Amino acid sequence: MTATLENVRLVLADDHAIVRMGFRMLLEGAGATVVAEAGSGEEAVSCFAGHLPDVLVMDVTMPGLGGLGALERLLSHHGNARVLMLSAHDDPQIPTRALKAGATGYLCKRAQPSELVRAVAQVARGRRFLDPDLASQLVLAQFGKGADPIDALTDKEFAVFLQLAKGSNVQEVADSHCISPSTVGTHLYHIKQKLQAANAAQLALIAVRAGLIEA
């Protein structure tokens, strides 16, 4: 039976306008109403506060604060928010941290369109949803916990690591997380120690090898 999204109000957050358009057409075709769109993590938090949708559908990889940072900020003000996180990457690090941070669901962008509709329907009802193709990877990752040095990063360090690996400088990271540059510097010191990286280029290489960002 095809999931229906009648009376479900959504905010879509993705930095690619053409992707948002595709999501809008698909989800509105299933009966949902898209009340707002956002192109960054900051905009997603603002749109949620302004419209209080049933579900926020949000990409993990966006400029500025990014999806994980936006999720943390959103849930600090709206603890009952229902958020479905999307990502083009299937490395277990990101879904594990997204769900730990409070996301209601997680879906890989390579999933079939019907899976997105099903995921939104589940999350709108307050039910957890995890991409079936990722479930086995998360189990294996738990069994192998500790083998990957990225596991040693705290959630805040991981968010900072992702931004720095994607090319943001210390001031940009500080501004997006509303913290001081010196605090970012402290996080960076710990990140380098834990990952045994000497500079930003090595951080980027580690992120690429882990499948967290594209080369």
Q: Could you explain the architecture of this structure?
A:
- By secondary structure, this protein is an alpha/beta fold.
- The protein has two domains: 134 residues, 3-Layer(aba) Sandwich (Rossmann fold), CATH 3.40.50; 61 residues, Winged helix-like DNA-binding domain superfamily/Winged helix DNA-binding domain (Arc Repressor Mutant, subunit A, Orthogonal Bundle).
- It has ten helices and six strands.
- A six-stranded parallel β-sheet has the order 2-1-3-4-5-6, with helices on both faces.
- The longest helix has 15 residues.
- The model has no long low-confidence stretch (mean pLDDT 85).
* Terminal CA distance: 40 Å
Relative strand content: 5-15%
* Rg, nearest Å: 17 Å
The second-level CATH architecture of the largest domain is: 3-Layer(aba) Sandwich
Q: Give me the side-by-side strand order of the main sheet.
A: 2-1-3-4-5-6
Helix content: 40-55%
Uncertain segments of ≥5 residues (pLDDT<50)? none
Give the helix tally. 10
Number of domains: 2
Largest sheet: number of strands, sense, barrel closure: 6 strands, parallel
- Structural class of the helix and strand makeup? alpha/beta
